[in-house]
Amino acid sequence: RGSSRDARRALALALPIGPEAIVNLPVEDFNALLGRARLSGPEVALARDIRRRGKNKVAAQKCRRRKLEAIARLQAELGRLGKERERLLRVRGQAERALGALRRDLARVSAQVLGALRDGAGNPLPPESFGLRLAPGGD
């Protein structure tokens, strides 16, 4: 029960080469071996079937391995991006707090400046009638 179906079939038809060698031989060597061995039609068909199934099995294993490697790479990238997102959220929070502090400072300074406005007689002017504006040059 330990041998594969292909190995049992190769043994039953007395193929001169085992299934593993059939699969692993370069195509030129495989074709040369088939020519030298003087195999019957069913034997050649079996050898080709064994080779096709074996190559397909190897290709499927490689495909599964590449898929697992791609999943691992994507999971690592997801972890890295999650950390980057957390860092950016912290930076954004700090920037929002700094902006809030600047707005409070601006409101305080504006209230001081506008509260200090006087008319010609020294009477305070209503602050709601005025506003501060920053010119493009910072003047």
TrEMBL record:
Gene Ontology terms, MF aspect: DNA-binding transcription factor activity, RNA polymerase II-specific; RNA polymerase II cis-regulatory region sequence-specific DNA binding
Record domain BZIP: where: 46-109
Keywords annotated in UniProt: Activator, DNA-binding, Nucleus, Transcription, Transcription regulation
Domain of life: Eukaryota
GO annotations of cellular component type: nucleus
A Pfam entry, by short name: bZIP_Maf
Signal peptide region: none
InterPro entries on file: bZIP (IPR004827), bZIP_Maf (IPR004826), bZIP_sf (IPR046347), NFE2-like (IPR047167), TF_DNA-bd_sf (IPR008917)
Region (Disordered): 120-139
PANTHER family, per the entry: NUCLEAR FACTOR ERYTHROID 2-RELATED FACTOR, TRANSCRIPTION FACTOR NF-E2 45 KDA SUBUNIT
Annotated family: Belongs to the bZIP family. CNC subfamily.
Protein name, as recorded: NFE2 factor
Gene of this entry: Nfe2
